[in-house]
Amino acid sequence: MMFAGAMALALIVDALLGWPDWLFRRLSHPVVWIGALISALDLRWNHGSGARRRVFGGICVGAVLAAVILPAALVQWALPGGLWGAALTALFSWPLVAARSLNDHVVAVARPLASGDLAQARAAVSRIVGRDPMTLGQAGIARAALESLAENASDGVIAPLLWGAVAGLPGIAAYKSINTMDSMIGHRNARYEDFGKPAARLDDLVNLIPARLTGALLALASGRLRLCLRAMMRDAGKHRSPNAGWPEAALAAAVGVRLSGPRVYGGTVADEPWVNDGAPDPDAAAMRRAIALYRRAMLLAALLLGGLALM
Question: Cα separations (Å) of 208 from 83, 139, 169?
């Protein structure tokens, strides 16, 4: 229960402070450190036949997890119990929660979109999605930003908090490492199809519960619980990801828009099915509603974690 309280406090600290630029300039960020290790192992091991790449991809996953979990476990073991232990666990966990960063990145898209500055909105959305921003109009920009908001509410906030509540610093650090590996090497292309497959499959596994929990939190925070639950049951399975469809469907139904659908990556059109089909395309007003919903859902998460800590 101490871990649940620590994660509630970490979420609150992150929501208030984020990761300040002055701190980044002095210390960088734990995800940057993890990313540097992944890049080094990628350069060293990702070559040869497909079978060799798969084997060394699995070894890469094990090496990164060992490099992260062992020091995290030692730190957790050295911390005191009680309130001081919870406070210090929260302090070490704070950089691994991205609630404020996600909010700020989506707000950076919503503001120029509301003022009609599509060039600035495209520049802002290009920082959070991989699709070609020059192909996006107002609806496409809003849709891309909302999909990122839904997916990263799970991957960047709820999932690390859940695994931190389960296993403390080793849990949140392990999750963040897995998610970083997936974002860096878990791609379906010639270089990473084999080497990145172990990381991608592990990321799918550790996000099974958090994605569904995020969808439930968004549904509860929306006040449209039954509508969101129906949308998740109907549309989540249509998504190319086994997990992202759950928070995306909940957000789409809560805000009253359609998401997913066709999009362009590297000049190639990916003909994805719609989520919450039949609803209108999102606009700046829908983005404002979605950001407010996201904030309520994160507050609800903090309250639930705090309640667990008091049980």
Answer: 31, 29, 20
